[in-house]
Specification:
By secondary structure, this protein is an alpha/beta fold. It has an 8-stranded mixed sheet with strand order 5-6-4-7-8-3-9-10, with helices on both faces. Strands 11, 12, 13, 14, 15, 16, 17 and 18 form an 8-stranded mixed sheet that branches. The termini are far apart.
């Protein structure tokens, strides 16, 4: 190979599109140095202590973090080395400036087309063999580590590629250009290598470490590829590369800060002040904070301690303060492991929105405003907390050259204070923030074979990973969650799982998956771990369990504290089963008649707050309409509210605020309110009802719904009620009460309309359990785990020859669960210990995120209801005041117009439109090419005499009602 000290030819360009065309394109060598400089700063200031240790250990340098830091900088500095190839000819203007030596020695460029990330992967081993080799060449271990560096370089555009040793051969190298091009690849690499101090190459580079380094490389590349930064540097290039690198190192802090990535240390406050609740921790919260502190201190003194964290499982009834318990655990983990921030993940967008406001308050009270708090789900940008103006932002535009090679051109105040930098709200970036709240789907994408999954793993690995409502995920999602925990175990990231109704079989499996990912440090440790993951991990209820990832030691809430928590939250719940008829001639009273009878104290003029939870939107709409008629004829007005998932997004957000206002701990409590809702109120919404009425549902979900009954009674007994108003006499006489509308009781059957919502096996088993407990109270929280295990746990007695019908139902249910688990195992990336090479994290052709499935059965579309008036105008409102933006003008909708349109959309099943052969459901011509608007289904409702009509779709009619939401009949 030629002399590695040859000067880099700066006619080789790294960035051209979007820059000042009056100047030469941005030289490649300078872009490589920019990325290396920012990677070093990210190591120093962005990565957590635990991430740095994990990377260093994976490089075989647990005691030499300084060298590990330089190697990370080297990987970043080599990321675009593959642009010294045919890439240089993909921009005609930039190619015109190439030096004569390069143009005259093209080798076999053009014989085979491949992207510059692949070219870089194939080029790296040859240059590192020269730069890092001793006189006798690289050792076998160093060669393997160099090949792993090549994989990292090949993955910097988000997708890893298969690496073969043959790529280092002359035939493949000639495809990247002739000898002059090879000399320049070496010269560019040498410039980076020398300015980093010529770090000695590693002899090891483990998979988990390489994934994190890839994430750092991607992040550094994105930061230095921002258009505004490149233009600024292009216009004032330093004369020498050493001066250029020095300036890049100085610029790094500003780039990271402006992106919102510079961590902020919270001013940690006492419990009451931090959470704004006016009291100290309860037994659950206090014991977790102190017990976890003791466990971690003990683990650090152990010879088996491997410097990784562990997993906490918290199980307690709704309203027991699990959120605060998780944040207290995060405080302890941060102190011991140097983790920075947390990701708080939930099952739905609605619960995420609510938690975002809650967490924003916690952080704002502890002076965390500079850190920013992202809301991460598919519609987060529509949230009021994320409202933005429509100004264009060159600072956030990242020029990654993808197109070049393709050839194609108070709560509100707190949320405002915690709004993150705009850069963090870009695609795939929100989880990178120090604090993030969102749906679990955003995290699960980290273990699906999609582009930039390594970046998501980097984002999650330096935080405390908190999963709320851990019981709410089906077997497919549990497989994905388990695999994510496996990778987090490898990174030594702390995990907290929260649930009110988690079967022990599920918690067992999730804990084991985490432990399987923790790397063994010796043969003896490997044998010990193999035995460890075979054992069972029982979680006290209510209580918590911590399993240390390094030592395997289990620590749990003390029995005294567990009993104290149970006493603090003890409640005797009356379960009133009402057999209801779902068809003419069936046994039981009509469903609506039962609801009317139960709610009569409120409907007929009395005080009180009631919650009715329906299994389907259609039943919620029917129930609301019936109660509306009853209330209007009965007496004093009732605040009757309807909430479900089929309202336009902006309407649903506003309705959620109205429904929850006054129903929480602080009031002011409504005098007379009835809320009719669907499953959207089961999780994470702070509601306290005097009585809860519910359709039959699987027992765990019934207990979730019951958690909205007398939710704050214990607190109010100690601290006083909002406004001093006592519970109404009728509610006080009955006590906390869950009324279950059971169509199965007394020999009935599960309604067909429910079978797409819940499995028949769970509903019939729940009905039987409730029948066995007829006349008995349910002691909360004491009876919860037993009831959950009875219906949802793994039981060997599901099949019985004496009851073949029931056995067949259960067999079908277990078969469906097995099929879901199989689908999950097919979709997910391999466990960290079974990844021989990084390309195993992707598949041929790669998946984009929109092709990935984080939930089975989630085949949905976003429906936009528009109104077509007699004069032909199409508007977003029936009154004709809000015109459809850019619909046929040929203009591109502005960001605010897109937000306005998307805020009116409704997620619905794609099945609704399978038979839509005659209806015009296409988007307006001006939207067809828009990445969001172009995918909408548009329902055009005719407006005649000021009244919006229905639209026929196959055998059904669909329309949007101002009061009821989207209807289908």
């Amino acid at each position: 190979m030629p002399n590695p000290r040859l000067d880099p030819d700066q006619s080789l360009w790294g960035k051209a599109r979007g820059l000042d065309e009056a100047l030469p394109p941005y030289p490649l060598v300078r872009h490589l140095l920019d990325a290396a400089a920012v990677a070093l700063f990210l190591w120093d200031e962005y990565l957590s202590e635990s991430q740095r240790r994990c990377i260093a250990a994976g490089l075989g340098l647990p005691d030499d973090l300084g060298r590990a830091r330089l190697l990370v900088g080297l990987c970043a500095g080599l990321h675009d080395l593959g642009k010294v190839s045919g890439f240089q000819f993909c921009n005609e203007r930039a190619a015109g400036g190439l030096s004569a030596g390069l143009v005259g020695d093209q080798g076999r460029i053009g014989f085979e087309r491949f992207r510059h990330d692949v070219a870089g992967m194939r080029a790296v081993p040859a240059v590192l063999a020269v730069l890092g080799g001793e006189p006798d060449g690289l050792t076998e271990e160093e060669l393997e580590a160099v090949n792993r560096i090549a994989e990292v370089v090949g993955g910097h555009h988000g997708c890893f590629h298969r690496f073969e040793d043959i790529y280092a051969g002359p035939a493949y190298q000639d495809l990247l250009g002739g000898a002059t091009w090879a000399e320049q690849r070496l010269a560019h690499a040498a410039a980076v290598f020398d300015l980093l101090g010529a770090p000695r190459l590693p002899e090891d580079f483990g998979v988990s470490s390489a994934v994190l380094v890839t994430g750092v490389v991607i992040l550094a590349d994105w930061l230095v590829s921002q258009e505004s930064y490149l233009v600024r540097r292009q216009r004032s290039l330093e004369p020498g590369l050493r001066q250029h690198f020095a300036r890049s190192c100085r610029d790094a802090e500003q780039l990271v800060r402006e992106a919102g990535l510079l961590p902020v240390a919270l001013k940690r406050k006492g419990f009451a002040e931090a959470y704004g609740i006016g009291a100290g921790p309860n037994a659950l919260q206090g014991s977790l904070a102190s017990g976890l502190e003791e466990a971690l201190s003990r683990a650090r003194r152990s010879a088996e301690w491997g410097q990784g964290a562990g997993i906490v499982v918290v199980t307690a009834a709704p309203g027991d303060g699990k959120t605060e318990a998780a944040l207290e655990a995060e405080r302890v983990f941060a102190r011991h492991f140097g983790t920075r921030g947390f990701a708080f993940l939930l099952p739905t967008m609605a619960t995420s929105d609510q938690m975002h406001a809650r967490v924003a308050g916690v952080l704002a009270r502890q002076e965390g405003a500079g850190a920013g708090l992202t809301l991460t789900h598919s519609m987060a940008w529509l949230s009021a907390a994320y409202a933005e103006d429509d100004a264009s932002d060159r600072n956030g535009r990242v020029l990654v050259c993808d197109g070049d090679e393709e050839g194609d051109g108070e709560p509100a105040r707190h949320q405002a204070e915690m709004r993150p930098a705009r850069w963090l709200r870009g695609a795939k970036r929100p989880l990178l923030a120090q604090y993030a709240v969102g749906t679990i789907d955003q995290a699960l994408l980290a273990v699906l074979p999609v582009r930039h999954n390594a970046l998501r793993l980097l984002a999650l690995s330096g935080k405390t990973f908190i999963v709320d409502e851990a019981h709410a995920y089906d077997p497919y999602m549990q497989v994905l969650l388990g695999r994510l925990l496996n990778w987090l175990g490898a990174f030594g990231a702390p995990v907290v799982l929260l649930s009110a109704t988690l079967p022990s079989s599920v918690s067992d499996q999730l804990v084991r998956e985490y432990l399987k990912g923790v790397p063994a440090r010796s043969g003896e440790d490997r044998r010990r771990r193999k035995a460890l993951v075979q054992q069972s991990f029982g979680v006290p209820y209510p209580g918590w369990l911590y399993v240390d990832g390094s030592t395997g030691e289990c620590t749990q809430i003390g029995e005294g504290k567990r009993q104290e928590q149970a006493r603090q939250r003890h409640m005797r719940l009356k379960v009133q089963v009402e057999p209801v008829a779902t068809a003419v001639g069936r046994h039981g009273e009509a469903r609506l008649a039962v609801i009317e009878r139960v709610l009569s104290p409120v409907l007929e003029g009395g005080e009180g707050c009631a919650l009715v939870v329906c299994n389907t939107v259609a039943e919620a709409q029917e129930t609301f309409t019936h109660l509306q008629a009853v209330a209007s004829a009965a007496g004093p007005p009732v605040d009757l509210q309807l909430l479900h998932a089929r309202f336009p997004g902006d309407v649903r957000e506003a309705r959620t605020q109205v429904v929850t206002s006054g129903m929480g701990r602080s009031g002011p409590r409504p005098v007379r309110r009835v809320i009719v809702a669907t499953q959207v109120v089961e999780q994470s919404l702070d509601l306290d009802a005097d009585v809860v009425v519910s359709d039959l549902a699987p027992l765990a979900l019934l207990l979730q719904r019951a958690g909205r009954c007398w939710r704050h009674e214990t607190w109010w007994q100690v601290h006083g009620r909002p406004g001093g108003r006592e519970r109404p006499a009728w509610a006080a006489a009955e006590g906390p009460r869950l009324v279950v509308l059971d169509p199965v009781a007394g020999g009935g059957a599960v309604p067909k309309r429910w079978l797409g919502v819940y499995h028949e096996a769970l509903l019939t088993e729940t009905s039987e359990v409730l029948a066995e407990r007829a006349g008995k109270w349910i002691a909360l929280p004491e009876d919860v785990q037993e009831l959950v295990e009875r219906v949802h746990g793994d039981r060997p007695d599901r099949f019985s020859w004496a009851d073949p019908v029931k056995s067949a139902v259960w067999t079908a249910y277990l078969g469906e669960e097995a099929a879901q688990r199989a689908a999950g195992n097919f979709a997910v990336v391999p466990p960290v210990g079974k990844v021989p090479a990084l390309h195993a994290l992707h598949r041929e052709g790669s998946w984009e995120e929109w092709d990935a499935t984080t939930r089975l059965g989630a085949d949905s579309v976003r429906l936009l209801c528009v109104y077509v008036h007699e004069d032909g105008r199409a508007t977003l409102d029936a009154q004709g005041q809000v015109a459809l933006p850019a619909a046929g003008t040929g203009g591109r909708p502005t960001v605010s117009e897109v937000r306005q349109v998307m805020g009116r959309t409704i997620p619905v099943s794609a099945e609704w439109f399978r038979d839509a052969t005659d209806a015009d459901l296409g988007v307006p011509a001006g939207w067809a090419e828009h990445p969001m608007l172009g995918e909408l289904v548009v329902l055009r409702q005719p407006v005649r005499d000021g009244v919006a009509g229905r639209v026929g779709i196959g055998r059904h009619e669909i329309w949007l009602d101002d009061v009821l939401g989207l209807c289908r009949a």
